[in-house]
Design a protein that fits this description.
By secondary structure, the chain is of the alpha+beta class. It has a single domain, classed as Alpha-Beta Plaits (2-Layer Sandwich), CATH 3.30.70. Helices cover 21% and strands 33% of the residues. The chain contains two helices and four strands. The protein is globular, with a radius of gyration of 14 Å.
Length: 91
């Protein structure tokens, strides 16, 4: 991936948007743990259930907090993807 300008650079302290995919289903009762996060039920490439979270975080510390919460729920992490500003606009 080419970074075209400084606005696309990711740092520890910048706001950013991520897709996070975990194995299994994260139901609505846990939604309050992930403020401002959208949840979508999907299937992985083997047809097994997984959940895609799309979240906007203030900084890397907030991202780590979300990942820790998912770990506390015993949901195996399948993917974490930073969304470039161009990808974010397409959503």
């Amino acid at each position: 991936m080419m970074i075209k300008n400084d606005k696309e650079r990711i740092t520890m302290a910048n706001r950013a948007k991520y897709h996070i995919v975990v194995k299994g289903r994260l139901d609505d009762r846990w939604a309050k743990w992930f403020n401002g996060t959208t949840r979508k039920d999907e299937q992985d490439r083997h047809g097994m259930p997984c959940t895609r979270l799309t979240c906007s975080v203030r900084d890397q510390s907030e991202l780590i907090g979300i990942l820790n919460r998912l770990s506390n729920l015993n949901l195996p992490l399948l993917e974490v993807k930073w969304m470039t500003p161009e990808e974010d606009k397409k959503e």
